[in-house]
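Hi support team,

I submitted a single chain yesterday and got back a structure, but I'm not sure I'm reading the token output correctly. Could someone confirm the output below corresponds to the sequence I sent? I've pasted both exactly as they appear in my results page.

Thanks,
R.
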Amino acid sequence: MKKRKKRRSKTEGGDKLPFDDEMGKNQKAIKVLQRLFDAGYGTEKEIVNMTMDEMLALPGVNVADLFIISELQKSIKANKVISYLSGKTEVKEETVDYGQGLNEDGTLEGVKATDYVTVCDYSALKIPKKEVKVSDSDVQTEIDTILSSYNQVTDRKVKKGDTVNIDYKGMVDGKEFDGGTASGASLKIGSGTFIDGFEDQLIGKMPGETVQVKVTFPKDYQGKEVAGKDAVFETTINYIDETPKLTDKFVKEKLSDRYGYTTVKEMKKTIRDEIFKTNKTDYIWNHMIEKSKFKEIPDELINDRVDVLVNGLKAQLKASNYTLKDYLSAYGIEDETTLRDQYKSSCESTVKVFLIADAIAADKKISVTDEDVKAYFNGEDTAQYEKQYSKAYINRIVLNNLVIQEIEKNVTVK
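Hi R., thanks for writing in. Yes, this is the structure output for that exact sequence:
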């Protein structure tokens, strides 16, 4: 019908998830599910097909989120998503040894950190304000992402100027034709984007309605097989795409339970603080890596981290009925060796962070306690995370956080 930008739709690629507020006993899972919706993963198929790379790319993702996403994938595969969201079931899956190469306390196994790194002086670390500054645009981008999950209006009729999300199937002489079918298409009514007469026939209709849109293709239409012919498009209006106005009332009614915000002012401040914290942490680690002195790092340390990434990817693919070969083919990667080579750079940086953190922890006598773990996870029971990711990996994450807190004692932002 027309050339459109491909855009991820909440109705594209399969049925919507069987999700509603009445089964919200597993609140943590439901909050993570909403974050997936926010990121554009709106169907069972899209969530099941998420790779570890895509999970790690989610804004602000943590180990608890990864666990829940994995459980969601397994429950969808087992056709038990409603039971899982209701907190009634757990689905089994082969495990990945995330603690590979780590001692139970989270430190690197078999090495003394100071044999491989001389940590730079961080006693008076000054961070240029411009390097961690959070712009109004950064905050607004995050707000827009949150609001985008509340954009589906279904309680009023379509009017001119609205943007609607539709599915359509076109037929000429009772037969479907190439390019005449789409799911989750975005269309602004009155834009003249579709064939003359198409958009007007949706005005006054309600979301949920299926309309038999009758049009005639222009004689000079680029698709010669339908040029000049009458066509009928069976069109379902999924929803009106309308971003809500951000008000204190909206924040309190829609965002309080999920995000903890109660006012627009508090929401903006919290988002700004979270982005600032992330920017500062990233700057500190990058600075510490750049200024510290490293001896040649043993290959086995890097390979342990590569193994974790590759094995995690394989597990995710298997859960989605795909193989590593399918993944490599889809992304144009020659073989597993090439994939591992691509991971090595980021894994080397990870090992450098571990070495720096281990060296500082040894010097400052920092070790992870059960209380530290509980505080990191806001007091919740971590048994399920330890089962999925191992106590060693959980302690690794918490240890890194404790070391960052130690470094931050001497940090000023100017």
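A quick pointer for reading it: The first helix runs from residue 27 to 38. Let us know if anything else looks off.

Best,
Support desk
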